[in-house]
Design goal:
CATH architecture of the largest domain: 3-Layer(bba) Sandwich
Number of domains: 3
Largest sheet: 7 strands, mixed
CATH topology of the largest domain: FAD/NAD(P)-binding domain
Shape: elongated
Strand content: 25-35%
Oligomer: single chain
CATH superfamily of the largest domain: FAD/NAD(P)-binding domain
Length: 451
């Protein structure tokens, strides 16, 4: 089959690229034959799980604020962002019949909070623009010459004048992101920067059963069983806390907000924000640790004073007058943190309770109030690994952007070849930023390929 434009990959960037190419050409009175090749049975599988199925599809911050959330390739992505900014992405979906809502943090969602509405809109607009979507269409290889020949797994081949690679990265391989685009990029002469999972769970030491030696200190499969310590934390969410990432003992990042302890490890908004640097450090063989501040609003001195006052109040309270020191300590901790966090906290900080032997039958229990204050301000988790591609939200690394023209998304090495989305070495924080980058780079690639 011969087409004018072929898009390999029917995800967010690929579908948007196809829509942009078809619409742009038709608007100039020169309709093109555009085809999307998607190896999965249905397109946009990864969008379906975005935002836990709610799909935060863009973020309406201006460029200055938006770009601060791009971790790699910010300057490269700027022309694409300006050609199809968040307001236009929002307008695209609303004009296509999908109502939207904007929540705190400038995050945009479909009004239904159903990711399927985003997918249905993209597919409907593709078909409405005359784009052909071929599912179960696995590409084996690409040959470049006078145009491109796409060799298919079923033995057939497709020919095209312009080719857009929108295959995504390596994250969530069950959705079809298995890194094929990186192999083809290399075969066509492009460099691919080192790839590693981003926006993924960080695994503290002692949280999971010890993985095989060859897996340390990197990938720890999510299904690896939790230890007793991991079970004591799993399912707990902490809000409005401070978190500091240490790499080789030096501060590498600081965040304030919420974290979640899951069956994978440390996740949640600020856990994800810090995971990129943590994973990169571990992959490079550096030591990394996450330090949690459960009371970021007060200094250590103020907190110590407050804890001593609470301890005195508990001692004077008739309800606790007959309690043992350990029981009083639990009451104290219950006033300082969620009850469900106490077992893990005491397990991680055995020094808050000490025993003084005064004789064979005389032992005094001491509660170290200063130690409790220090532990609340600096609960350190040494990191031994991370959950890999199977649950990472996005891929860091990709096709080197210095070999791509930022104003067109066209290869500097192979005329007529374009890249967009997660296949490129661009990635950002969670919060709608990555999908916006997928949509705007896809839109620009399609627009450029149609000319």
């Amino acid at each position: 089959m011969r087409y004018d434009v072929i898009v390999i990959g029917g995800g967010a960037s690929g579908l948007m690229a196809a829509i942009s190419a078809a619409r742009s050409a038709a608007g100039k009175g020169n309709p093109l034959r555009v085809c999307v090749l998607e190896k999965m049975p249905r397109p946009a599988r990864k969008i379906m799980i975005t935002g836990k199925g709610r799909c935060n599809f863009t973020n309406l911050k201006d460029w200055g604020a938006f770009s601060s959330h791009i971790r790699s390739g910010a300057q490269f992505a700027r022309p694409a962002w300006r050609s199809f900014p968040p307001e236009k992405v929002l307008e695209f979906f609303e004009s296509s019949g999908m109502p939207t809502v904007v929540e705190r943090g400038d995050r945009a969602f479909p009004a239904s909070y159903k990711a399927s509405d985003v997918v249905d809109t993209l597919v409907r607009e593709c078909l409405g623009a005359g784009v052909k979507i071929e599912s179960d269409a696995e590409v084996l290889g690409i040959q470049a010459g006078e145009g491109f020949r796409i060799d298919m797994a079923d033995g057939s081949n497709h020919l095209c004048s312009k080719l857009i690679i929108a295959t995504g990265g390596l994250s969530y391989p069950g959705t079809g992101s298995t890194g094929d685009g990186f192999l083809w990029a290399r075969s066509l002469g492009h460099k691919v920067t080192p790839l590693f999972p981003s926006l993924t769970a960080m695994v503290p030491a002692g949280y999971k059963d010890k993985p095989a030696a060859e897996e340390l200190p990197r990938h720890i499969p999510r299904e690896t069983p939790l230890t007793a310590f991991g079970h004591s934390l799993c399912g707990i969410s902490l809000k409005n806390i401070g978190a500091t990432l240490l790499v080789q003992g030096d501060t590498a990042g600081e965040e304030f907000g919420d974290i979640d302890f899951t069956d994978g490890g440390i996740e949640g908004p600020i856990g994800f924000q810090l995971s990129r640097k943590a994973v990169k450090a571990l992959v490079n063989g550096s030591k990394a640790a996450l330090v949690i501040d459960l009371k970021p609003g007060v200094s250590l001195t103020e907190l110590t004073t407050r804890i001593k006052e609470l301890w005195d109040d508990i001692a004077r309270d008739p309800r606790s007058s007959r309690m043992r020191e350990k029981e009083r300590c639990r009451v104290l901790l219950g006033k300082l943190m969620p009850w469900e966090l106490i077992p893990a906290f005491t397990s991680a900080h055995p020094g808050i309770i000490t025993l003084e032997r005064r004789g064979r039958a005389d032992t005094k229990v001491w509660i170290n109030l200063v130690s409790i204050a220090k532990a609340l301000k600096e609960w350190k988790f040494d990191l031994c690994g991370f959950v890999g591609w199977e649950r990472a939200v996005v891929t860091a690394g990709g096709v080197a952007t210095d070999e791509i023209v930022p104003k067109t998304m066209e290869s500097r090495l192979v005329p007529g070849l374009y890249f967009c989305g997660e296949a490129l070495d661009i990635d950002a924080d969670t919060g709608g930023y990555n999908l916006q980058l997928a949509f705007c780079t896809g839109h620009l690639a399609g627009l450029s390929a149609s000319s």
